[in-house]
Design a protein that fits this description.
The protein is about 35% helix and about 25% strand. It is built from nine helices and ten strands. The termini are far apart.
């Protein structure tokens, strides 16, 4: 059987702000259909890495390829193709407050397709139904709970049927039950549509629920200290930093065999 190429390739990626290097020489791949979680302690560069992966930030060195296209390219035609193939759910949901949910979800369709108004409206209803927001088409974001805003943001991220979805702290600001419901929804989308997902989170319950693999960053190492199955890493990692994180053990209190 021929080997299936990765859908995302991160090669020798370095990020810095001014003279401050956030991480350097980061390398990993994301396979089609998997949920990869990026995690680590505060200030390690999780969200910075994610934003480099979908082209919001340009790297100091290295590159990120999605379906073979460099996300930092200046080729407008290539960028248009890229943007049609991934969606992003930001921490806040990033909905436009003066627009209804239907108007928010329709924006990518209006910008990147030539569909008729009737077809756009049909797709908007379908996407809102997928995230259990049927009947809320004409509501404003201010009229929704935090969890509903996240789901509306997810509906907009899925508007163009992307092959990749990026999530930046999807559980931030949510209560445990709403967070668990969002995890279930993400897994349903992944298994039902085969959508590849890259998720930044520090929530252990969430990552153990959704992650196929994890990439763990460390602030002091300025790079990756672990890649793999989270359950295996929790059980058998020999790196005290990894054990401390997965077992909620403060630094300095780690012991062999913990």
């Amino acid at each position: 059987m021929p080997e299936i190429p990765p859908i995302i390739v991160v090669e020798n990626l370095t990020a810095q702000y001014g003279e401050n290097i956030i991480f350097r020489d980061v390398n990993f791949q994301v396979m089609k259909g998997e949920i990869l979680v990026i995690l680590g302690g505060s200030g390690c560069g999780k969200s910075t890495l994610l934003k480099h992966m979908f082209g919001l930030y340009k790297p100091a060195a290295g590159r990120v390829l999605i379906n073979g296209i460099d996300v930092a390219t200046d080729d407008e035609a290539a960028l248009k193709t890229l943007r049609e193939n991934f969606g992003v759910l930001f921490q806040s949901g990033a909905l436009f407050g003066s627009m209804t949910l239907a108007e928010n979800v329709s924006l990518p369709l209006e910008e990147y397709t030539d569909l008729s108004r009737e077809d756009i409206d049909r797709i908007v209803r379908m996407k809102l139904s997928m995230v259990n927001l049927t009947g809320y088409e004409q509501h404003l974001p201010s009229e929704l709970s935090g969890g509903m805003k996240k789901r509306a943001g997810l509906a907009r991220a899925m508007a163009l049927d992307p092959t990749v979805l990026f999530f930046d702290e999807p559980s931030a600001g949510l209560d445990p039950i709403t967070s668990a419901e969002l995890d279930i929804l993400m897994k349903q989308i992944n298994s039902g549509l085969g959508t590849t997902m890259v998720v930044v989170t520090h929530e252990l319950d969430s990552l153990f629920s959704i992650a196929h693999r994890i990439v763990m960053l460390d602030k002091e190492a300025k790079g990756i200290i672990a890649v793999g199955d989270p359950w295996e890493l929790k059980k058998s990692s020999t790196d005290p930093r990894v054990r401390n994180f997965f077992n909620r053990t403060p630094a300095g209190n780690d012991s062999e065999g913990a």
